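anyone seen this seq b4? input:
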Amino acid sequence: MTSSSSSSPPPTSSSPGDPAGPSAGDPLNLCGEICPFTFVRTKLALEALAIGAELRVIVDHEPAIRNLPRSATEWGQEVLGVTALAPGTWAIDLRKRVR
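predicted toks r here
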């Protein structure tokens, strides 16, 4: 007798925008995402981290290099910097300050 039910765990994803977010020290790669999704996914990733933890967010959507730091600051997080990594790709470094 064959079973049609699946007992295997659900697939996991390491793709950009993974709702579980990165683990501490791993960058959050949001290349291909646009605002406001860049902020939503960043906020979810920060919520999973401890106070004081740092998060590097990689984006390729140019408005995100202004919008994401502004939104993070308004939310009470610390913006450590925005760095150009390559033409059209930036890193936004954040430190979690509030829950």
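The two ends are 51 Å apart (CA to CA). Residues 37-47 form the longest helix (11 residues). kinda curious what u guys think
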